[in-house]
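Exercise 3.2. Students should predict the tertiary structure of the chain below and write it as structure tokens, then compare their answer with the key that follows.

Predict this chain's 3D structure.
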Amino acid sequence: MDVAVLRSFVAVVDNGGVTRAAGVLNLTQSAVSMQIKRLEELLGFDLFDRVGRKLVPTAAGEQLLGYARKLVDLNDEAVTRLMHPGFEGVLRFGVPHDLVYPVIPQVLQSFARAFPRVKIQLETGFTSGLHGSFARGELDIILTTETQLKEGGETLAELPLVWYGREGGQAFQKRPVPIAYARTCVFRPQVTRALDAAGLGWDMVVDTEADASVTAMVGADLAVFALLRGQEIAGLAPLPRGHKLPDLPLQKVNLYQASGGMTDVLAHFRGLIEAGYGAIRAQAA
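Answer key:
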């Protein structure tokens, strides 16, 4: 089976249709449709059913998908290693705690396969601290959560802040509202401003620089806080409908890259991150 055709098949599955897949692959819609048709003719069965406006894989398509991903990944790994056999060094990457999942583990895995000689130095922290490290030249690429984009950056996605508490907890009903945030978390002033604007009193129940202390208070049902939509923390869940807490602003997921050496390596790493957030945007559309 042609790897290019399998790549188109995977892209259609990941993006829910031919139009978005064509944009990701930088191909025309007709070219992608023709590749899918060729693959179906080769295999002798349909790969997709249409559900509403989206294409979803058939049972046979689901079976093919795992193999297709492996073949595409293996092809890309082989080509990259042969083309860039000598790349080695350290890539210094910074990311906020709440952006590690779900994109970054897959990015790190794919990058390690493509550039096995490049060591990844991972730093997690708050956006303000990561900006400081980046400005001092201590990091090559950072991701941030911000309401605005700073000069030289790129916005990868916009995600809503969602109220979280202990699963089945009652802390959100207390007045003043007990909230928990580390001192330098960028969400902290946004949440307090929203509560002030809604005329709701609030009480900051922790004084800490550590995320672990914050999640411990929320997990004990002694406070609530807001996280980016889609975060999964054991024992915590989005608050139920009708929680009566104010809506919160959208957050930009921004990427900043330093200029300098390892241009091809950084470009590949950045491309993996951009593809990961491209899939998130497609799922949210």
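Discussion points: Residues 86 and 101 are 30 Å apart (CA to CA). The chain has nine helices and eleven strands.
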